[in-house]
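This part of the workshop introduces the protein records we will be handling. A record pairs a protein's sequence with a compact description of its fold. As an example, a complete record with its sequence and its structure tokens follows.

_____
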Amino acid sequence: MELRHLRYFAALAEELSFTRAAEKVHVTQSTLSHQIKQLEDELGQPLFSRIGKRVVITEAGELLLAGVTRGLREIDNGVRSLKATPGQRQGTLKIGSTYTFNVKFVPSSVAAFLRRYPAVSVTVLELPVDEVEEQLDQEKIDLGIAYRPALRPGFMFEPLYIDEMVLAVGLDHPFAARKRMRLVELHRQELVMQTKSSDTRHILDSNFKSIGAEPIIVAEMNGAAPMISLVQELNIGAIVSKHFAKLFPNVRFIPLESPTPLRTAGILSKSNRPKSLAFYSFVSEIRNAIIEANMHVRKTGHGTSVPLPFAWESDDAINCDPIDSFR
């Protein structure tokens, strides 16, 4: 089956006349009839009934027509978009992002995208990861930027980089002067943690279980920023992304090891939903941003190295990239 078979089929379905359909697609009537016969033979069932000089589409033809019409429209739109210059490309793009990425990463990627495609309308929604999945499922957004969730059927996740999690404590906390800590040292220590339903919490619970440690969980929150705010108010700790070291100068962020809590950031989308050119162009901008910032996950013969998205701020608690120290 080739694209021309589908175009001929769509033309005949619209005209219900071999003569008019042949004129529409600029072929002879015999050529059109032969191509339709080839398509019917390949599909194993008739798509049209010939009743005298009348042409009637069959039930199988009706079922095929809906998908073919939609597919040809997507192909034609894509071809037109590719022929247009970047500044002429139009359309809409709706992005769902969790808070961590919406601080800097997503805005920077959107800015780079709009510099190339100023006519595209972009909407960014800040959402928890379960809401990102829900809105993707309802096709209210085109893609999500989040940490890897437990994927539902019909979803795709493209890994971008691996994110290291660290201990956040206030300046007066007993651990504030530490350069690094083993995760087991948090046994029976008071922490504010992510809510039990979050995928990050599942990762941390598994890490603690693997070393036989049980922290005292004094509160649960579904966002890193309020967790860090609570850390500043109380003499407790929180395990959050390393990225927040730049945003909270009055909090100490301490690398954790044995094991180091890690999670994978990436692009979430629906596998069976048609993707627009704006979708692919924005994803390309994200990949470029990852490469330029040296965040991409590099495969080596000795395992996987874990470059991080932003360098540590230079301060008393953090003066080197902990990953380099752990290798």
Observations:
- The longest strand covers residues 155-170.
- Confidence is low (pLDDT under 50) at residues 295-327.
- The first helix runs from residue 3 to 15.
